[in-house]
Amino acid sequence: MKSTQFRLDELARHVNGQVIGHSDLSISALASLAAADAQSISFVSHEKHLADAQQSHAAALIVTEQLRLRLPQQQNFIVVENPYLAFALLSHVFEHKVLARGIEATAQIAESAIIAEDAYIGHYVVIGEHCVIGSNTIIQAHSTISDGTEIGRDCFIAHHVAFDCAVKVGDRVRIHSNTVIGGEGFGFAPYQAKWHRIAQLGSVRIGHDVRIGSNCSIDRGALDDTILENGVIIDNLVQIAHNVVIGENTAIAAKCGIAGSTKIGKNCILAGGVGVVGHIEIADNVQLTGMSMITKNILQAGTYSSGTSFLETGQWKRAAIRFKQLADVPLTKIVKQLDHMQAQIESLETILKLRK
Amino acid sequence: MKSTQFRLDELARHVNGQVIGHSDLSISALASLAAADAQSISFVSHEKHLADAQQSHAAALIVTEQLRLRLPQQQNFIVVENPYLAFALLSHVFEHKVLARGIEATAQIAESAIIAEDAYIGHYVVIGEHCVIGSNTIIQAHSTISDGTEIGRDCFIAHHVAFDCAVKVGDRVRIHSNTVIGGEGFGFAPYQAKWHRIAQLGSVRIGHDVRIGSNCSIDRGALDDTILENGVIIDNLVQIAHNVVIGENTAIAAKCGIAGSTKIGKNCILAGGVGVVGHIEIADNVQLTGMSMITKNILQAGTYSSGTSFLETGQWKRAAIRFKQLADVPLTKIVKQLDHMQAQIESLETILKLRK
Amino acid sequence: MKSTQFRLDELARHVNGQVIGHSDLSISALASLAAADAQSISFVSHEKHLADAQQSHAAALIVTEQLRLRLPQQQNFIVVENPYLAFALLSHVFEHKVLARGIEATAQIAESAIIAEDAYIGHYVVIGEHCVIGSNTIIQAHSTISDGTEIGRDCFIAHHVAFDCAVKVGDRVRIHSNTVIGGEGFGFAPYQAKWHRIAQLGSVRIGHDVRIGSNCSIDRGALDDTILENGVIIDNLVQIAHNVVIGENTAIAAKCGIAGSTKIGKNCILAGGVGVVGHIEIADNVQLTGMSMITKNILQAGTYSSGTSFLETGQWKRAAIRFKQLADVPLTKIVKQLDHMQAQIESLETILKLRK
User: Fold this and answer.
1) Catalytic residue among C46, C130, C242, C279
2) Element (H or E) spanning C331, and its range?
3) What span, in angstroms and rounded, lies between the C-alpha atoms of A255 and C276?
4) C neighbours by CB contacts (3+ pairs under 8 Å)
5) Is residue B142 annotated as part of the catalytic site, yes or no?
6) Homologous superfamily in CATH for domain C6-94
7) d(C-alpha B264, C-alpha B244), whole Å
8) Model ipTM?
9) Cross-chain Cβ contact C254/B186 below 8 Å
């Protein structure tokens, strides 16, 4: 596939940066320091990367003014305040975007659906009755969109995505392949030793600028809706159960699971593999480290963890046996007993000294 | 989408309940106490919801007789013994069901496949040779069904479901979107530092009234079959490895993983994120709390857990370091030593007292 | 479906084994010891299965010479050095393979794509521009293959697989249903309290003889590629984040997650549910037990673990409370204090003895 050429000053304008060196340098790729060649631009976001930067074959580097002064052998720079942000912005310039527009002949669109003229609907997409697809939205091959779903403008829906009920999706939302939105929540009433299914009647509401990775399951609510507020970003293989609410700009890394009716605040960060039990509340600005198991409300901003550090397995087995023993070892009592015994010993010592 | 109207006494008959108030009240929705409006019916399953019930705008409430007496301001009720079960039953009345029947023109059905006349086969469904699809079964768009698969009556198969071998499925089974049934088990023989694939020849047998969520992987057996017995319910993103057997009415919440050849009993409940090692046995009526790691047989009914509680990260780090230290701290010996020292001290005290 | 018949000596040749008994015995299935009938061959890989072997109705058994001598009641054998490997090899003989070749009429193939004549492209497969599909490669129904993807020869791509960027795949690679290869990595630059998406420009490179299960997410790199080296085997529901590198012949069981830029060595084994943090390195020949949480480099071959053993929940709660208390219990100091107090007591005892 052909790649486009950019002048260094064009790219600098894009990130509000200042060119040092040859403004008319021709750049055709954004690359890591190690992989960059004489047509590539790369970036240095931290002084720990200075050694790699000195050895990089990149034609130009995005740096701070301070970092530039420490790279005397390099010649071409875009100087910015935040190189990592500049990299993020430039990544969009070099991205291969889906340019096709219109509806592929093989797509099945219900008559009552309203599709923006400049949307793209891929091969074999199935769109149900009364759906609305906004301007400049891309829906890739094989996605299935149930009756009544409304998707905003400038969205990107990848392959094999299933909207399984009448979902409402905001603008600039990105949903990756094989994710299921609005699947049936796991609701059953136990009665006479059997599970009686509760038909799920709620939906899913997704705000603006939400991002959902691949192979996620975002269930529809039982009665009310499951809600992802504006700016929420979610990685792959994440489970969001029925009636969960995720607050604005919260980030959820891969393999997390949030059980039913739990409410997570704004600007939280859940690292990979975190599990959160149902029917609890997590405050704003909470960070949960990887694989934490959260079983109670967290009402105070801060960072929380669970689990144990990893150990060589032989050592771990000894520690794990002691963990079991802890059930019957009264630790705090031991500490108190120790203090008490220490006092007794000292008292004995004093008595003996006096009687010398 | 239009909604249907029901009279309050119609709904009451549906749940074997008694109307208190206006029998001819017109109801068009089942809603939560908070979201209910003057056309909605809601339910109160526990006295902790009484405050919400008092403030609800619901036209009518499903309650027990005891709860009704504590809601003097509300006027219309359906009185039942088990309001939560009544809610479960009514949810089906208000559900938007797939009403279409027949085979979409874009479906690819092998000649030898037998499809019941009143089944529904959605767009782009692919059905292989010798498959059988039972009466009133719905197969939504894009599902793929391999040769020899037999699906019973009144089943619901959502979008993008893959049956990857000749699977046998009972009646009233529900399988949600993007789930894979009968994928290849993870079987390899190590030999001369390489992994030699074992072709998987078993299948998957799914009983009646089984429910499987979205994005699950239920692998086919190596030689014998993987088995889900009648009434098993499984949430999203669950892994069931080859030759696992899950007993009747066992419930498995999201993100659990059961490794190969493990046998889980009847009426068990696995909370979210539980991992069960391969080749073990779990008795009937076992409950495993969230994210438990089960590494050995459980032969006794009861509730089991593993992991640690979550803590503020600073505190957790101190505890986690101590967990490591436990490997070299002989806890039970310490307890004995303490007792022994206590005895020694007391003996010293006695001696001193005697010599006073 | 009809099954093929094999003579016992044919099967023996296939595994370099020696027939004991009737060479012309007709075998139509490979089965477990318990399920085998008079048309089946089964295998005994360990003396712990001898009792089952004695009771098996199998027509013939694959055994070592030593095991054969302990099965006097059985009459027909294939004797080999490694019965489990022989079983692995024979499993391929009895597998129902996809025999169809060519391109289904409903597949959408871009004009610039190059498809080997003896490949099979299933119904509704979508193949983009400049893709290459090698000889004897099977692509099952509904898979979607983005522009520029190259897949080698003798590969098997199951249903609903999404290649979401220009992925490079070696020979003899197997990828199971509903897996996503080359989905967008989870890369965001935080700036002014919002997440700014980093378009992912790298790809995924998959070596020869790689196996990936169902419902996996293998993300494309941010700038450089995500890499699975030759012989890597991956089970279901696994997350491989952007820029991860997995070394040759490493095995990753179901539900593992590897965070971004982590490099895992050769011949490692990750048991189910392991989580590995980003930007670390794991040496060759490392084994991680189930559900381990790996947060730091592992530079030494060996076996590592984390977590706690499971306990009956009441006992676990007591142990878990003590784990919390450990944060404030100076274990190593206690051990020292105990030793010190013991010395003090003994000194007191000596003094008293002297003064007797």
Assistant:
1) C242
2) helix C331-355
3) 12
4) A, B
5) no
6) MurE/MurF, N-terminal domain (3.40.1390.10)
7) 8
8) 0.96
9) yes
